[in-house]
Amino acid sequence: MYPELKFDRNRKRVKFCPCGKHNRDGKFSPYFGYDNKGYCFSCGETFLPNQNTSYSKPKEIVFAKPRHIDYHDRELISKYGRNFKKNNFIQFLKTVFSVDQVSNLIQMYCLGTIDKWDGANIFWQIDNYNHVRHGKVMLYDHVSGKRKKTNEGRAYITSIRSLLELHDFNLEQCLFGLHLVNETKADRIALVEGEKTACIMSVFKPDYLWLATGSKQGFKYKMLKSIKDWDIVAFPDKGEYHVWVDIASELNSKGFNIKVSKWLEDQHYYPKGTDLADVYLDEVIKTDKSRPTVSFKEVEKNNEESIKLIPTKTESDVWKLAAKNPNILNLISAFDLTDPNGREIRESLEDV
User: Fold this and answer.
1) What's the rounded Cα separation, in Å, for the pair 264 and 299?
2) What's the burial of 94, exposed, middle or buried (CB within 10 Å: 0-12/13-18/19+)?
3) Across-strand partners of 329?
4) Cβ(238)–Cβ(272) under 8 Å?
5) Residue 10 per-residue DSSP state
C-alpha cells in the first residue's frame, strides 16, 4: 500500500502527462512526490503508484447549478419614497443645493427614507434592466452631511434585505445609479466609491453620469462589466489611487477604457479617505478660507493621458528601490519578472 495521495496544486511543474501529452495547459495534476503519477483531465486516466495499469476517470463531480439573482419588488421604491423631511441626508443636501436640485436628485437616484434609525436614507441599487438588486440603508448627520457612528465607532449601516428578514435572498450587487445609463445624455461615466459622492457630484458636474461602486472593493470586473463600452473616468478616494490604477490597467487589457484621476491623491492638504464630494462641499461651504480654490478642469487634466502612462504600484515601488540600487532593474530584465498581475514592470514611463 502507498500513503494517502494528495494532488499538487503546482500542476505545471510536470512537463508531460504519462499519456505523452504536453502539460503546458496544466491538465495533468500530479500527486505530491511524483512526476508521472496523478490524474489527467485531458485523457481521463488516473495513474497510480506501483501499478502499471491505468484506471478509468473517477466519478464525475456534480456541481450545484448557479442560483438565479433575486430582486426586490419595485413597489418598495414607492413605499419608501416619501417622508424626506425626516431624512437627514436630504435635509443636508437642502443646505447646499436648491429645492429643485434636491428633488431632481431624489428622482434620478430613487432615494428613499426609512425609520430604522431616525433620519435614515436608502440608496437603491437598480441595474440597467431596472431590476432592484439591493437597498443600502445609511444614517447621516443632517448638519455636517457626515455618516453618523455609534459610541463604539461603527457606522449606522444595514440593508433592506436584512430589515425584511429575507434570509434566502441571493444578492448580487451592481453599481449605484446603473439604471441611468439607459436615459442619460452624458457621453462619459464618472465612477466614485460612495453613493453620497455620486449624488452630490451629479449636481456639481452634470455633464458626467455619476455612478458609485459602493465600496473600494466594488471597483472590479464583476461590477463594471455592464459599462464596459463606456468611456470611464474613475475618481478614487484619497489613498486608493494606486489600487484603482492597478485594477484599471488590468480591466483596460480586457477592453475597457478607464482613466484614473490622480488629482486628489496629489493634494497634500486633504487627509486619507477624502473623496471628491468632500472637496466640492468645502468649496461651497467654505469651511477653511486658507484652502486653495478648486477648478474641475484641474481635476480632469491628467485624465487626458492614457492609463499606460500611469505607473502601477509595483513600478512605483521598484523605481524607488532602483534609485538606491540600479541593479534591481537588471535583475528584473534578466529573469523577466512581472508584477502580481503578470504585467511587465517598466523601467520608466519612457518605455511606453
Assistant:
1) 8
2) middle
3) none
4) yes
5) -
Contact in structure between 58 and 48 (CB atoms under 8 Å): no
Note whether 128 and 179 are within 8 A (CB).
Answer: yes
**pTM of the predicted model as reported, rounded to 2 decimal places:** 0.69
Q: At what angle do helices 313-324 and 327-334 cross, to 10 degrees?
A: 130
H or E element: which one contains 98?
none
Task: Compute the Cα dihedral for 189, 194, 195, 198 and give only its sign.
Answer: negative
pLDDT at 273 over 50: yes
289 to each of 73, 201, 286, 296, 314, how far by Cα in Å? 47, 22, 6, 19, 38
pLDDT tens per residue across span 101-119: 999 999 999 999 999 999 9
Q: How far apart are CA 7 and CA 24, in angstroms?
A: 17
pLDDT digit string, tens, across residues 140-181: 999 999 999 988 888 999 999 999 999 889 999 999 999 999
Q: Give the SS3 label for residue 112.
A: strand
The rounded radius of gyration (Å) of the Cα atoms in the chain is: 26
Contacts of 22 (CB under 8 A, 6+ apart): 15, 16
Long-range contacts of 279-284 (CB under 8 A, 24+ apart): 280/200, 280/201, 280/204, 281/96, 281/145, 281/200, 284/96
Q: From CA 45, how far away is CA 39, in angstroms rounded?
A: 6
Task: Name the grid cell of 232.
Answer: 470611464
**By C-alpha distance, which of 291, 228, 282, 233 is closest to 262?**
233
Q: What is the CATH number of domain 186-309?
A: 3.40.1360.10
Residue ranges of domains in the chain: 1-63, 75-163, 186-309, 313-351
Close Cβ partners of 226 (under 8 Å, ≥ 6 residues apart): 127, 128, 174, 175, 178, 181
